[in-house]
UniProtKB/TrEMBL annotation:
Keywords: ATP-binding, Cytoplasm, Kinase, Nucleotide-binding, Transferase. NCBIfam families: cmk (TIGR00017). This is Cytidylate kinase. Residues 162-181, 186-211 are annotated as: Disordered. SUPFAM superfamilies: P-loop containing nucleoside triphosphate hydrolases. Residues 162-174, 190-208 have a biased composition (Basic and acidic residues). InterPro entries: Cytidylate_kin (IPR003136), Cytidylate_kinase_dom (IPR011994), P-loop_NTPase (IPR027417). The gene is cmk.
Length: 248
């Protein structure tokens, strides 16, 4: 992650969406750190509520049980891009939310409307209190959570590229590296399908989002591209141009 912090001319709200493994988290953290913005990982919030449910005996195959428990845990997110933090009922969830057990259950939990209402409210509150601007990444930020964002970016990449990126970092529950590329790609596309086909707030590119295909780009190139888009959006915002213009 770059260490230089350059000044943005206006406090911008940036929405970064896209399927799994397209580079949303890596890009969002680096862009926020470079431009001195706050950062919110909304996937981590859905993962944290899923982890809480799994740890507290909620049957995650039962939509009604999930809905009934949606308001119970306290989910707290840090917004420092250099030290992302997430807790559920005061317990550090940063490690447990990345296990395969949580990854396998998170699409089902996050599809339940009561969960989405709860987490969306939390996200809007955090974004509204980020006085210096914020980069919020997820699946429905540009379409549902922050439709008035100053800049919307939709990251894509081929399933093969995403699986190759993911397989380098995944661990089994026993702590062994995941080496089966085909299985990784299958799990990733299955999660995308579930996230894109759910009724409430599916994964979807906002009409006014800038699409960036990262398949052939290095992470550094993607970061540079998004930094430029944010700087342009911030300059337009400072000049008082309409929000729709800022997102082009
Ligand atoms: N352009 C790129 N080239 C190569 N590797 C990349 C690129 N972008 C991201 N990566 C790597 O791919 C992996 C997944 O990236 P990241 O976690 O940022 O994706 P994501 O879209 O946030 O995924 P998810 O939605 O599943 O959390 C990381 O190991 C990251 O370093
Ligand atoms: N805005 C969001 C963010 C995430 N989700 C769901 C769908 C994902 O499969 C899951 C985990 O996200 P990740 O950590 O992989 O980015 O959370 C969502 O529905 N809406």
């Amino acid at each position: 992650m770059p260490t230089t912090v350059s000044a943005t001319p206006a406090a911008v709200i940036v929405a970064i969406d896209g399927p799994s493994g397209t580079g949303k988290s890596s890009t969002s953290k680096a862009v926020a750190a470079q431009l001195g913005l706050s950062y919110l990982d909304t996937g981590a919030q859905y993962r944290a509520i899923t982890w809480w449910m799994l740890s507290n005996g909620v049957d995650v195959s039962d939509q009604q049980a999930i809905a009934a428990a949606a308001d119970k845990p306290s989910i707290v997110s840090g917004t420092d891009p250099r030290q992302p933090a997430i807790s559920a009922d005061g317990l550090d969830a940063a490690g447990p939310i990345r296990t395969q057990e949580v990854t396998a259950a998170v699409s089902a939990v996050s599809a339940v409307p009561e969960v989405r209402t709860r987490i969306t409210e939390l996200q809007r509150t955090i974004a509204a209190s980020a006085d210096g601007g914020i980069v919020v990444e997820g699946r429905d930020i540009g379409t549902t959570v922050l439709p008035g964002a100053d800049l919307k970016v939709f990251l894509t990449a081929s399933p093969e590229a995403r699986a190759a990126r993911r397989s380098g970092e995944l661990k089994t529950t026993e702590g062994k590296p995941v080496t089966d590329l085909a299985a990784t790609q299958q799990a990733l596309t299955a999660r995308d399908k579930a996230d894109s086909s759910r009724k409430t707030s599916p994964l979807k590119k906002a009409d006014d989002a800038v699409e960036v295909d990262t398949t052939e780009l290095t992470l550094e190139q993607v970061i540079e591209c998004v930094v430029t888009l944010v700087e342009k959006a911030a300059a337009r915002k400072a000049e008082g141009e309409p929000v729709e213009e800022a997102a082009r």
